[in-house]
Design brief:
The chain is α/β, with parallel strands linked by helices and about 260 residues long. The chain has eight helices and ten strands. The chain has a single domain, classed as 3-Layer(aba) Sandwich (Rossmann fold). About 30% of the residues lie in helices and about 15% in strands.
Length: about 260
């Protein structure tokens, strides 16, 4: 996989936003897979700035969710549908019709998972999927020991993930749902380009295991090693545990003509 070490989160956001803009220049109706949380916000802010400056055209772009909480009422501000509408769809000037996501309010959650996998396939597949990584190495909500061939399904959150996400619920872990719908690792790997963004020292060990460690269900993000076009963008803090950090810096610096990733 490609590993790009950037000075800070803003630089990472700009790099990935330019990659998305470049993709949209080649394929105006590209399907962009988006992640939630604080890490990808610089990406969305940089892409929205490009749209306002006329440097990116999102008029035909589509976006899709990586995951969704189960059981939050429709319109809940921390449902991932609400978050994506607020942080991605609206700033990019997209309509809700350009947005695909699983139904976390469905009575039959298993059927909703199957329906979402079908919807992604019928949409032509994801062109670029943005990912984050958990401190335990999870991607999406594929917790450690998830099957590397898994499809979109319901998962039970670990206590650590609920603790990590409590900050979005006023710090109250009791408000964090216990279950989610998540694209499975097998579903994620079908995207044409995977881009993982990680910032901060807290992610350093997980990044090192995903990039340099063995392929293991204990580190779901290590599945990116199987993908033909996976890019990992990390700031200096998140790169601090990489044994090959100097090599990755030199490799990227040797390609000054690269535009995006």
């Amino acid at each position: 996989m490609e590993v790009v070490i950037v000075p800070d989160s803003a630089a990472g956001g700009e790099l990935i936003a330019e990659a998305m803009a470049g993709l949209l220049r080649q394929k105006p109706d590209a399907l962009l897979g988006v992640a939630t949380g604080s890490t990808p916000l610089p990406v969305y802010e940089a892409l929205a700035a490009k749209v306002r400056a006329g440097e990116a055209d999102t008029s035909r772009a589509r976006v899709c969710q990586l995951d969704e909480y189960v059981g939050l009422p429709a319109g809940h501000p921390e449902s991932y549908r609400s978050v994506v509408l607020r942080e991605v769809v609206e700033p990019l000037g997209l309509s809700e019709s350009a947005f695909l996501g699983p139904d976390g309010t469905a009575e039959d959650v298993a059927a909703a998972c199957l329906a979402y996998d079908r919807a992604l396939a019928e949409a032509g597949g994801v062109d670029l999927q943005l990912l984050g990584i958990g401190t335990d190495g999870h991607i999406g909500f594929n917790e450690p020991c998830s099957s590397l061939a898994s499809r979109t399904r319901i998962k039970t959150l670990t206590e650590q993930t609920r603790v990590d996400n409590a900050r979005f619920f006023d710090g109250d872990i009791g408000q964090v749902p216990h279950h989610v719908i998540t694209q499975g690792i097998g579903t994620i790997l079908e995207a044409r380009h995977l881009v993982l963004l990680a910032t901060g020292e807290a992610k350093a060990d997980a990044v090192a295991l995903a990039v340099e460690g063995p392929l293991s269900a204990l580190v779901p993000a290590s599945a990116l090693q199987l993908h033909p076009h996976a890019t990992v963008v990390v700031d200096e803090a998140a790169a601090s545990s990489l044994k090959l950090a100097d090599y990755f810096r030199a490799t990227y610096a040797a390609k000054p003509s690269w535009q995006g990733i």
